[in-house]
Input
Amino acid sequence: MKKTILKVENLHYAYWNGKVALEDVSVDIHEGEKIAVMGSNGSGKSTFFLNMNGVFTPEHGKITYRDTLVTKKTLKELRKNIGIVFQDADNQIVTSTVRAEVGFGPMNLKLPIEEVHERVEEALTYMNITDFKDRPPHYLSGGEKKRVSIASILSMKPEIIIFDEPTAALDPLNAKMLEEVLAKLGSEGKTMLLSTHDVDLAYRWAERVLVFNAGKIIADGTPLEIFKDQPILKQANLKKPMLLELYEMLVQNELLEDTAVYPKTTEAFKAVVENNVILLSNLA
Output
């Protein structure tokens, strides 16, 4: 069984105007998990993330990282190990060159300068942005800025990476790039949480889905469990992923044999259709 590395218990957070953003939120995050966090705007996803890495301080409840209760004294360790890639890269970029941006976090960790340089080069190479390391990041394209913002988190070498709406405003080419980065990080065992409105992305990428509604977690399960639960989808204003809906429609109309193998990619769906189509005469 995977080890719990972050434990959130009975978290409650309200904004200055008294609006409750999180109410009695409890969840365990385990090593190497790929978690999609879903829910409509204002449901509490971003506030949850900012409490998780110590930007916000909850009014009630507690967060435990690696069996250590997070307090003012241990907050630095939490922030060092949980990195957030924000939705808008411009809100994350603070320096005048890509190289400086990627090195900003390691410098703040008070690491030896040699290690900072090493981490920067590793992150630049990982995100394939070495060629423009001396360019001003604010003049890069949206996709390039996203690469820089991810590299700046990777250089910190956090144990958990949070992606807040990472595909927002990305064109299809850069969205594909992002998924490739997510797949690479996942193959390396990195623990990741990703908030998204893209149910198709969540369905094919995540191994676990958390659903927020009105500041509470109303569902926690596998993508298949969540997206087959119609009351939860209705409550959270979510829709079924296209491939799941199409698969169920074909099974219901007896055009596919229900093998309980639910394809999550177009390639997998094509294979299921080619191997399991029945009643071919009905398609003529």
